[in-house]
Design goal:
The protein is an alpha/beta fold. It has one domain: Hypothetical Protein Ychn, Chain: A, CATH 3.40.1260. Helices cover about 40% and strands about 25% of the residues. It has a 5-stranded parallel sheet, with helices on both faces. The longest helix is centred in the N-terminal third of the chain and has 15 residues. The chain is globular, with a radius of gyration of 13 Å.
Length: about 100
């Protein structure tokens, strides 16, 4: 796979305090460091972690960070410029347009 084609999609759905959330963020960081285009979508409980400093730093380095708009509303998370808030159509688009798509519950 050529470097220009490397696109990784990551879906996080668990609590930001959960090990799976941290593992997903670490994978995103490793992929960004390797020069991949990384698309990370937070859904369900994971929307609570969008404002975490590690995710925001990665966003500043090129991570494409998305949050579920419905999940944000449901969990009282402000819909602001910390992420692109959208619906599940974006998840479908990410699944079909990335080279790899992984989920962390």
């Amino acid at each position: 796979m050529s470097s220009r084609a490397r696109k990784l999609g990551i879906l996080l759905s668990g609590l930001p305090e959960a090990p799976a959330f941290t593992q997903g963020v670490r994978l995103a960081e490793t992929a960004v460091d390797a020069g991949c285009d990384v698309y990370l979508y937070c859904i369900d409980e994971a929307v609570r972690g969008i404002s975490r400093s590690d995710l925001q730093r990665l966003k500043g380095r090129g991570l494409k960070l998305y949050g579920c708009a419905y999940g944000a509303h449901r969990h009282g998370v402000a819909v602001d410029d910390s992420a692109v808030f959208a619906g599940l159509t974006v998840v479908s688009d990410l699944i079909s347009s990335t080279d790899r798509f992984v989920c962390f519950p």
